[in-house]
Amino acid sequence: MLRTISSKTSSRSFMKNVLLKRTSCLNTQKRCIVTGTDSFLSTSNAQYIDEMFEAWKQDPSSVHVSWNAYFNNLKNTGTPTSAAFQAPPILIGTPQGTQSNPLGVGNATSGGFDSNVNLHLKVQLLCRAYQVRGHLKAHIDPLKISFGDDKTKPTPPELTIEYYGFSKADLDKEITLGPGILPRFAKDGRTTMTLGNIIKELEALYCKSYGIQYTHIPSKVKCEWLRDRIEIPNPYKYTIDQKRQILDRLIWSTSFESFLSTKFPNDKRFGLEGLEAVVPGIKTLIDRSVELGVEDVVLGMAHRGRLNVLSNVVRKPNESIFAEFKGSTNQDTIEGSGDVKYHLGMNYQRPTTSGKYVNLSLVANPSHLEAQDPVVLGRTRALLHDKKDLKEKSKALGVLLHGDAAFAGQGVVYETMGFLTLPEYSTGGTIHVIINNQIGFTTDPRFSRSTPYPSDLAKAIDAPIFHCNANDIEAVTYIFHLAAEWRATFHTDAIIDIVGWRKHGHNETDQPAFTQPLMYQKIAQQENVIDTYTDKLIKEGSFTKKDIDEHKKWVWGLFEDSFEKAKDYVPNQREWLTAAWEGFKSPKELATEILPHEPTNVDEGTLKGIGKTISSWPENFEVHRNLKRILNNRGKTIETGEGIDWATGEALAYGTLMLEGNHVRVSGEDVERGTFSQRHAVLHDQKSEATYTPLKHLNPKQSDFTISNSSLSEYGVMGFEYGYSLTSPEHLVVWEAQFGDFANTAQVIIDQFIAGGEQKWKQRSGLVLSLPHGYDGQGPEHSSGRLERFLQMANEDPRYFPSDVKLQRQHQDCNFQVVYPTTPANLFHILRRQQHRQFRKPLALFFSKQLLRHPLARSSLSEFSEGGFQWIIEDVEHGKAIGTKEETKKLVILSGQVYTALHKKRADLGDKTTAFLKIEELHPFPFAQLRDTIDSYPNLEEIVWCQEEPLNMGAWSYVSPRLQTTLKETQKYKDHSVRYCGRNPSGAVAAGNKTLHTLEENAFLKDVFGK
């Protein structure tokens, strides 16, 4: 089993092989001891041998005499390595899980091997086994059905003394402490412990109410940091005052659930009974984190326990919560649809035990489990940016509370974890708390995941995993405290898996015994955590039963007071807001105002200055020769004021906004260059790894420009950018899809947050979704940004022509905007309009791949320095290529790049009587502009809607009723209808080959012109 080592190999070289390449028999032995367990290799015993070797070089007496002889032999270059090295005990290769013929002295040693070394090595391996697999024996499951105490699962053999050839008679043997054998216990002066006491201590450290998985972490520094805090006598011992605080927090947490159960027994509340210890744990986490420098904590969680967290952690007034249960909330004070109480968010500033204040925000969430995870991280990143803390990442912390089934089953969890070390997405580590009630609605864990624990996913990011019994509140407090210190030290994620139960069904009106009869028989016998803890405190003499009962009575009385006040409670809309946006008008204020349109044009001098910067690069920076031509042409078009293309118009918008104090962030797959090689925002030196981003060098006083290629994720990254946009109205945040249809996998974010977030939660956002769209014969996967889906979610009523007041408020009242601009200038103005208003609305910005370089999609500099965004664009060919409006017989209304095909067809036919009218913004709909423009054509015989998408896709189903409503308001065309011209209905988005694509295009063009 051992690799043959040549006697010619030097002693020192051999030692390096032993320690670094893991070729020694020790490592072979480790592979035998835990068959198939890579964890044994990740932080190996070689570390301890390394420590001994270094210690021996300084002081030979610091190691056991047998190791002294061994290292002396290695040092003696005259001794062949084969003679210097003698194999340690080799484990018999018994099948996994059996204990026949285990390691023993008689059959595991070779001649002359020191039995003391044999003993020391075996105890080392035993200690290592507890470090790696002790959690499998820990008492982390109060129900004793899934983990540790489950008697149906045998104790791992490597955690038994028989596995190493020991008997009960060996338990009294004295073992020298040192590398690999509880070295931290020696700090109190002990140099030896009996084998029995070593096992007893290992059981206490790794197999009590918590179990820790950390040996998968490849960093020795991190593992040793944890051992320094774990492998010590009594890792936690609380004072009377500390116990009083723990008890107080636990009473509030458990009493809240009991109070709701008493007052509202038939209401859904998704209570935390069985896991109430999570709330005191989170408060401990926040307190310790604040002591370590955190100023803002962003929380994300699903429905389970949310009301308890709102009440006891975020400090939402209990009167408000009870009023929502009673249904006594005055609906006249809140506009919008609202949402169920266990979906709402909140922000609040509260004191901590250190005397410092912390800003807490709980992100509102839908019932789509884990959808809020990336939103929390995006908001946390934005806070770090605004605090200028992107280097240390110590002032803002994201905390995510997960259900056990959701954590293991929802892919967005992995997408979110993938942000951990990405340069523009990292938040300095997230604390993940799994509220593990050992069931997913009605599904047992064995049907909902393929791993022993729900937390096993976290091994992919080398996070420590702390499993803890929810019924041991002191252990829970210790674990949350430890996780806070881990995050502050290493700025990486930590996982806390709190194992408890769910007292009721999925909700309080459900009957769980239908599907889990045995589990709920056990739950019925469980003692509540507050009873468990009070019994402990009374028995140890910390508090009397009278003291505890009086405190419980006082807390209950406060709940009763709040309950009485609830009937008169008037909610403050601020309660709902995840971010307050101080100094910015609230949705309620905007509901009664009509805001003026603010200009978006910029003077030519500023534009030309930006043009010089974005078309140049530093000296001694070698730009790709083809890119030089592109950049030079970019600068030339701005200087001459003619022929400015799409990417240049976009860059001018970003540049001007940053000069005005807006932080611009662009994110998505391949956005730095642009999927279609159009943007080139980041230049790469052709002779080095250096990069240069021109938009970061406009002016020393400019705001930040962030542009970053994202991970290959849509759901996670879009959620992240949405969360980022929530933090401040001064952030222009753009998420770009590689192709528009890629937004499909982020549909939850679009549906639940972007389309409905403000109406449900008053959660304001100016997020821009940049979505490539257009039919170019490239097949069904890369043609459509699914325009129809966005338009279907539009909230404007198509049945009625808006009143004058509503026409002025169209943008204020819409849930989001949908635009499909066709000129660089209109792109420029729509991006600037996002930041030049006293409110924010999300923007679905469709852009054509074809128009990136098409000669019809060019703008002059005057279009940037004058005017603003054009809601509709009339035909510029009147009196030139076509006749006047009076001579026009057919008006073709359209949106997007289909204009180029229509323009070419009209020119080929020499048609002088057909005019085009482009709708640049589809939602809100340009009712008034269309009415007035259509009326400006006195002699129309036909009005056509043309699109390149199939009949059941694109904008037709959206515009059709609105066009008819608009025509009824015209002077001359009240009785006209609009004829559809486009592709026939289809199940596939587009044709799969260029030939068929062209045939379909020719067909609808012929339908438009009649020839």
TrEMBL record:
Residue ranges annotated for the Transketolase-like pyrimidine-binding domain, each copy included: 644-854
GO process terms (BP): tricarboxylic acid cycle
Needed cofactors: Mg(2+); thiamine diphosphate
Residues spanning the signal sequence: none
InterPro entries, per the entry: 2-oxogl_dehyd_N, 2oxoglutarate_DH_E1, DH_E1, KGD_C_sf, ODO-1/KGD_C, THDP-binding, Transketolase-like_Pyr-bd
Main location (coarse class): mitochondrion
Cellular localization per UniProt: Mitochondrion matrix
Any one GO cellular component localisation term in the record: mitochondrial matrix
Function text: The 2-oxoglutarate dehydrogenase complex catalyzes the overall conversion of 2-oxoglutarate to succinyl-CoA and CO(2). It contains multiple copies of three enzymatic components: 2-oxoglutarate dehydrogenase (E1), dihydrolipoamide succinyltransferase (E2) and lipoamide dehydrogenase (E3).
Name the record gives this protein: 2-oxoglutarate dehydrogenase, mitochondrial
A Gene Ontology molecular function term of the record: thiamine pyrophosphate binding
Domain of life: Eukaryota
Ranges that cross the membrane: none
UniProtKB keywords: Magnesium, Metal-binding, Mitochondrion, Oxidoreductase, Thiamine pyrophosphate, Transit peptide, Tricarboxylic acid cycle
EC number(s) given by UniProt: 1.2.4.2
PANTHER family, alphabetized: 2-OXOADIPATE DEHYDROGENASE COMPLEX COMPONENT E1, 2-OXOGLUTARATE DEHYDROGENASE
Pfam families linked to this entry: 2-oxogl_dehyd_N (PF16078), E1_dh (PF00676), OxoGdeHyase_C (PF16870), Transket_pyr (PF02779)
